[in-house]
Amino acid sequence: MPKHIFVTGGVVSSLGKGLTSASIGMVLEQRGLSVRMQKLDPYINVDPGTMSPYQHGEVYVLDDGSETDLDLGHYERFTNSPLTRNSNYTTGQIYLSVIEKERRGEFLGKTVQVIPHVTNEIKSVIKKLGEDGDVDVVITEIGGTVGDIESQPFLEAIRQYSLDIGKQHCLYIHLTLVPYLKAAGELKTKPTQHSVGQLREIGIQPDILICRTERSISRDDREKMALFCNVPFEAVIEEKDKDFSIYEVPLSLVENGLDELIVQNLNLDADPLDLNNWRDLLRRLRNPQHEISIAVVGKYAEHFDAYKSIYEALDHAGMHHQCQIRIGRILSEDVEREGPERLLAGYDGLLVPGGFGERGVEGKVEAIRFAREKGIPFFGICLGMQCAAIEFARNVVGLEKAHSTEFDKDTPHPVICLLDEQKQITDMGGTMRLGAQPAVLAPGSLARDVYEDSDVSERHRHRYEFNNVYRQQFAAHGLSFSGASPDNSLVEIVELPSHPWFLAVQFHPEFKSKPTKPQPLFAGFVAAAISRHAQKERSPAPESQV
Ligand code: GLN
Asked: Is 382 known to be catalytic?
């Protein structure tokens, strides 16, 4: 029977529970244990797929096509836990399932209630994850903050869980904030005491406190929290802000004894810890041999979480090449207002990420034109590829009013359009082309060279596609279709052989990048930007002096 770790958060949101949970998973895996990870989100949307990036940040897509919370991205980047639909549940999903059961008459005439029916449903999804093969530890992160009305059924369910399987098989970790008050010149432990008080009211006594803090916590403060929160002194673990890299988090938790504490508490049969790989990674990050700048031009550029996996994937490619990457987050609407020269001239590469809706599209098209004409390495992702097709159609093929039917239904040249099967769909949730799909790469192409493979699988999340009617015309003007679905019916990758590095993909390669295994296209793009930078240093072009 697997052991269970439950991670809750207190005091404020955005404490980095996902990152901490992922770090715990990673450290346990490094001790030879088989781990499964899961997030339970208290909001009512069935999944984050219908939420704006401003509300929720990026929607993270799994191989099986589920649209999940971005914390699952941390889980995949840090651990080898296989993630599926069973790895992310929301209140909406839980209730949907309970209500469907009620309609089928499965509750045999009983009144359906939060306790026990909703809590039983929650417990069943926790249990299900532990039955996924040979599992030593299931880590379940509860979204939201203790004290929220909507998270109560989840907390009640995890309280009951230890009654069901035995307290010795469960561990409750509470992540909290120990703020520094400038006026008082000291750290404050009271919010933590209150937050733990609220958990205990529900009937959960945390075993371990992980304290997020800007400054080191004194022994006195740790003793105070141990006493007031009823946990052993050594179970008050400090997790100080990391200004260098998130990949330092697991190392700092280990330095503070967290892995050993978990192993002992749950009586796990674990190997000694070996973090040499991870340390090596950080060493590479600390000793860059190159420095480049990449412009990411998007609609949500000012929102850090909206393109989370893209920034992470760039970082991984940077670590791989021992290259420090300065990322310029540029609003595509600013490109429309100020022009690409002013905003993009100094950069060594341009990345245009995915997106929905018309706002800022013309700025993306202009940015791509600039990169194409100036020989700046360009990497387009999903909407980024669609914009590259629009730009090429208008400025190279001569189809002046070319557009995507997503933005102009009546365009005379619909180079991007809806697939027939998408035309009938009216529901918004979970109805796009989603998840892992195979692509076959053309011999001799940049894509094939970069992947070092002819068959790949990448994750998708889109409705619109390249319109095959235009393939020949585009090819005659020099655009190469270097990746397609195995039956050749869907365009997956386009590239421009006459350009130093110009490649755009209909899928989302960023979801499969790990610090220990950078995604090949990101690694190739960063390598091209490094060459561009070196070339500029050798013979500065006028635009690099802007
Ligand atoms: N809006 C485009 C589509 O639905 C692109 C989607 C995306 O970039 N993820 O096809």
From this structure: yes
Pocket lining: 355 vs ligand 1, CB cutoff 6 Å? yes
User: CA nearest 137: which of 80, 62, 74, 61?
Assistant: 80
pTM more than 0.90: yes
**pLDDT tens by residue, the chain, 546 residues:** 999 999 999 988 889 999 999 999 999 999 999 999 999 999 999 988 888 888 888 999 999 999 999 999 999 999 999 999 999 999 999 999 999 999 999 999 999 999 999 999 999 999 999 998 899 999 999 999 999 999 999 999 999 999 999 999 999 999 999 999 999 999 999 999 999 999 999 999 999 999 999 999 999 999 999 999 999 999 999 999 887 788 999 999 999 999 999 999 999 999 999 899 899 999 988 999 999 999 999 998 888 888 999 999 999 999 999 999 999 999 999 999 999 999 999 999 999 999 999 999 999 999 999 999 999 999 999 999 999 999 999 999 999 999 999 999 999 999 999 977 777 776 777 788 999 999 999 999 999 999 999 999 999 999 999 999 999 999 999 999 999 999 999 999 999 999 999 999 999 999 999 999 999 999 999 999 999 999 988 886 655 444
Q: Using CA atoms, how far apart are residues 388 and 391, in angstroms rounded to an integer?
A: 5
Does any ligand 1 atom lie closer than 6 A to the CB of residue 222? no
Task: Kindly tell me the burial class for residue 451, based on how many C-beta atoms sit within 10 Å of its own C-beta (0-12, 13-18, 19 or more).
Answer: buried
Instruction: Assess whether 170 carries a catalytic annotation.
Output: no
Question: CA quadruple 473, 474, 478, 483: dihedral positive or negative?
Answer: negative
3-state secondary structure of 17: helix
List the structure tokens of 58.
């990026």
Ligand 1 centroid distance, CA of 299 (Å): 13
Q: Whose CA is nearest to atom 1 of ligand 1?
A: 356
The active-site residue out of 290, 323, 510, 533 is 510
The 3-class SS string of 393-444 reads: HHHHHCCCCCEECCCCCCCCCEEEEECHHHHCCCCCCCCCEEEEEEEEECCC
> Which numbered atom of ligand 1 lies nearest the CA of 355?
8
Asked if 510 is an active-site residue, the reply is yes
303 within ligand 1 shell (Cβ under 6 A): no
| Atom of ligand 1 lying closest to residue 382 CA | 8
Annotated active-site residue in 170, 382, 387, 417: 382
